[in-house]
Amino acid sequence: MQRYDHLSSTLKAFMLDKPDATREELKSHLKVMAEQFLTDSDAQGYWNMVEPNVDGVMMNLVEDTVSSLKEIAATKHLSTDQHRHIVEALSLLDDVKSKARGDARGLLNRMHGTESSGELTMISNHQNLKSDLPSIASATSISGLAAVYLSEHAVNLSASTLRVAQSNYKTLHEASSGVDMANHSRADLVALRDNLSETRSNSTVNALLAKLSTLLSWAKLNGHINNDYSAKLKFTKGADSKRKAFNPEQVGRLQAEAKGSAVEALVTIAAITGARLGELMQLEVSDVKEIDGITFIDINDDGEGKSLKNKYSRRVVPLVDGALGFDLQSFISGLPAAGPVFQFSKDKAGRDFRYLQERAGADGEGLTFHSLRHSMAGRLKAADVALTTAQAILGHSSNSITYDHYGKGAVAELVKMQDAIAVSLASS
């Protein structure tokens, strides 16, 4: 009975006994609590509702309340807003603990509304972990669903398992381009899968898709979404050969639709280099280089946040002036002084490209941004480009040239690649 009373008091203290409370009302309630903790006032008796407020036991009360909130999250039927409220309440209690150690910054930030809304605190059996999930654009985006899913299941997860799960769902959210899963389609999930495959092996992608399937199955079962189209989404043996390429006419229409937009250069450079979306989006201005009159991009994983699909992906690829109408000088003059070559997110690139596909009538089954890479591979083959040169351009083997390992013949190889690209695209 005492435990039941304690849970009931916690529900009341955090307004979780009011299912109709709005998101703003719940946030305002936590702000009031933050001020009371900061000033050691208890005008509305929050902690008297939890247990008798005896001197010297405040931290014990906080720990008891943390346990109660975790139990409520794991056992009670709550709305999405209530689950998120519990996550934020646990973060508030972390700030209370910090204040007891002499650091009141967290509580002050809450009072002034400057706490980071994108840094949710997820529940663990042993500790609260700062989530790596991105800011939630929608309660039914992958990150929004994952926040609720993990808050419900975290009491059964170790800290390390929870941390891995957070990382996996962050990756899935980014690959989804923020699509609202309440209205998602099969095409959205196919695009997500192909985005993942830009820098990952099929086996790694399949492991992530298994996590997605579990999340969407739970979300549908609990009424968060109406449909789950994740069945049979995984790659099967030989799946790479089934991916489609854009034909030259489709590439031309995509370029025409992209003209004047933020992704104009991105689309054309992908079409003339065969580089993956992930490889292009992580290019820095310092990765655009010139040697002996040949301008090229240095695709590498040097620097924080960069990654490549495999060891052969590290390579240099010439930027051929005039190929498919590419204006090299205009591109160079338009580069920022430093930082990323493309000043927008990978999510935006993916969304904008899908929009271009629709406008250009190039959005058939199996056609994605990655299809530009397959188109380039097909053009190189059709032009009878030597296999070793084609592999060097696409990063398919150890024949790839890297900027770190230039030898006497490296410039000659760069010229070969430049000529191969020019010849293969000459008829377009």
Could you please describe the fold and organization of this structure?
- The chain has 428 residues and is mainly α.
- Among the domains are: 114 residues, no CATH class; 178 residues, hpI Integrase, Chain A (Orthogonal Bundle).
- It is built from 18 helices and 5 strands.
- The strands form 2 sheets. Strands 3-4-5 form a 3-stranded antiparallel sheet. It has a two-stranded antiparallel ribbon with strand order 1-2.
- Strand 1 and strand 2 form a beta hairpin.
- The longest helix has 21 residues.
- The radius of gyration is 26 Å and the shape is elongated.
- The N and C termini lie far apart (78 Å).
Descriptors:
4% strand; Site-specific integrase; 428 residues; mainly alpha; hpI Integrase, Chain A; two-stranded antiparallel sheet
Largest sheet: 3 strands, antiparallel
Tell me the β content: under 5%
Number of helical segments with 4 or more residues: 18
Give me the Rg, rounded.
26 Å
- How far from one another are the termini? 78 Å
**The CATH top-level class label of the domain at 248-425:** Mainly Alpha
**What level of helicity do the residues show?**
40-55%
CATH architecture of the domain at 248-425: Orthogonal Bundle
On the 0-100 scale, what is the average pLDDT? 81
Strand ordering within the main sheet? 3-4-5
> Which regions contain 5 or more consecutive residues with pLDDT less than 50?
42-57, 116-137
Structural class: mainly alpha
Shape: elongated
Q: What letter string, H or E per element, gives the SSE order?
A: HHHHHHEEHHHHHHHEEEHHHHH
CATH topology of the domain at 248-425: hpI Integrase, Chain A
Classified in CATH, the superfamily of the domain at 248-425 is Intergrase catalytic core
Count of individual beta strands? 5
InterPro entries: DNA_brk_join_enz (IPR011010), Integrase-like_cat_sf (IPR013762), Integrase_catalytic (IPR002104), Integrase_recombinase_N (IPR010998), Tyrosine_recombinase_XerCD (IPR050090)
Family: Belongs to the 'phage' integrase family.
Domain Tyr recombinase: 241-419
Protein name: Site-specific integrase
